[in-house]
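Sat 14:20. Reprocessing the chain from the morning session after the first attempt stalled halfway. Input below, unchanged.
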Amino acid sequence: MSVIFSAGNLLAHYDGLQNKVLAKIPASYGPRRFYIGLAYVSMAAWTFSIIFHTRDFRVTEQLDYFGAGASVLYGLYYTPIRLFRLDRKTPGCQRLLRAWTATCLILYMCHVAYLKLWAWDYTYNMAANVVCGMIQNGLWSWFSWRRYSKNKRGWAAWPGIVVAWLLMSMSLELLDFPPIWGALDAHSLWHAGTIAPTVLWYK
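Finished this time. Tokens:
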């Protein structure tokens, strides 16, 4: 079931890229390229998830972890770019964008190097992903609340709804029960729970 639900997430990102980002967002809109990057990084991560949950070898496990880490960190990367419009062509924004891009690339390289060369540490990997996820979730919740308070439009609440949905989905990982029919467990339910918010996100 983890394979099936990972494929569902892959398709959600592919559909979002093709039918929302590329089809409906003008090429002149600054954040568009970062949305495209989000889709490609996410599709790669879910592809690695499919492979890992099909065949659990050391190399497939590493690809899954590095892909998931890249996806989470890319989410943290593009969030302030979108919220604070660092994509603008002003010299100040461009300097900030270059510095933020370099920072995130260095963080990811250090993350992979630590896991690959120093210690394959599950606790550290989980903590790093949770910290990155919580920071971006906090930023999107703040953005959603501020925008909704200002204009009372339904779309402004969507980021906050997605964040709440994802947090509930992640909490499924805290459950632990024998797989139903030998296939459906808490981990696969977590993957199932991220499909719908992904669809909503691209809207």
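The CA atoms of residues 77 and 103 lie 9 Å apart.
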